[in-house]
Write the structure tokens for this entry.
Amino acid sequence: MQKLALVKLGGSVITFKDKALTANTGAIDGISGALVQLDMPVIVVHGGGSFGHHWSVQYDMHTKPAPYDPHGVAVVHESMIALNQIIVNSMIKAGANPYAVAPCMFTTGHKAIAAKVRQLYEMAKANNVIPVTFGDVVHMGGRKYSILSGDALMSIIAKVLKPSRVIFATNVDGIYRDMKTRELVQELKSARRNGDPVEFSKTAGADVTGGMQRKVREAFKIASMGMDVVLVNGLYPERIVQAAHGEVQTGTVVVKKGRK
Ligand code: IPE
């Protein structure tokens, strides 16, 4: 395990999911201010929200590799670059050193190019550069493309780097045991995943990669590789800072396999 915070900024935090192509700049600036405080190597992954998902839905593009409309490929990718630029510029303004990295630079298909992933860590460790990558449409060979979600990227990166902190920031406080009472599950043991009465919030707006359920699935996957995974509300950026320091007051920890 290496000292590294791997942080996913969900589309529900960084965009207004029900307003096409609209970034939540207030939330992004808040998170940039939090990330710059972290005294450890950081890698950021962000989702698509009302940017990537908006066009993916319009062009009927999904995670399944298929010969999607190439114009759809162009506009989905462009929208993700546009959102990435907003985030990167916000981080620069906050005094951080972000470095935009499209996922095709360190993956092939949906698999890691391990040496390139390790290079991201090198950059983060050597001089406080924060690689900022994102869910995107990626080439799968021939005419086929696929949506590679930011959540899937979290597993891909975590598997290679084994970060000491894996954090998913969404627009909810964590996983609710009961949606009505908003009772939070503080710790979720991976072994009990099928038995645990967990409800999933219906995310507003369109989502081609599976919303909260997908996040939890990736969180379990990462926990089964031996890392605790924390889900926090990114609209309270200080919770990201706390989670990176190993303190979770309001949030859910998906406990790594093997920890009692
Ligand atoms: C989606 O990434 C990327 C595209 C649709 C191109 P995510 O699935 O990780 O996005 P959010 O966080 O759920 O919005």
In short: The helical segments are 11-14, 25-35, 49-58, 70-93, 114-127, 150-161, 211-224, 238-244. Residues 74 and 123 are 29 Å apart (CA to CA). The pocket of IPE is lined by residues 10-11, 47-49, 52-53, 56, 76, 80, 135-137, 147, 149-151, 207-209 (CB under 6 Å).
